[in-house]
Amino acid sequence: MAILTAHERVRTVMDVLAATYRGRGSVELGEPYRVLVSTVISQRTREEQTTAVSKRVFAHYPDIATLAAAQESELLGLLIGSEYREAKAPRLISMAKILLEKHGGQVPDDIDALLALPGIGRKTANCVLIYAFNREAICVDTHLHKIANRLGWVSTKTPEQTEKALKIVMPRDLWAGSNRLFLQHGRAICLSSALPLCSRCPLQTWCTYAQEPTAPQR
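Given the sequence above, the corresponding structure tokens read:
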């Protein structure tokens, strides 16, 4: 049997995930302002709540200019359902003002400029690059960080380290779609608890964690 290279092993796993979750985590592009704001709203917030809250916010503030002029108390009420709304409300308004003043009312497609905005970390910045500008980037959330380590692709302590390591072992054409596939797998099988559903996992053959004698068998 031929020995697979690191890239080939990663591609094989991604193909299995794509087949399991019906799609390779295809990227559907959105309007940059909406992608940026909804991604901030999504921080520590479930997807269904993010969708509902974002819909309310955009109904009141359809563009950067209206958000920059928002009253914090009103935005705070619209953000009910999104975690840490007390921090997100002033950050969103400040972010919009900076976009008006420094970027001509446009969302920048440069990671350094995105990271300079209040409340924007690498995960959010990379999501904006992927879903607003179709850039090759890796959006590392808790699921991707956890599963990449369990698979043995990386041995890292932080999402930032994982992003850097994955750029070495993961083919570039798989970067953008990786977040959504691993999000689905992390919710369905590779749970964050100490007892992921290893016996039901389609990735057992390629997973370092699942091959350990102590791996859960439920």
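The two ends are 30 Å apart (CA to CA). Try to locate this feature in the token string yourself.
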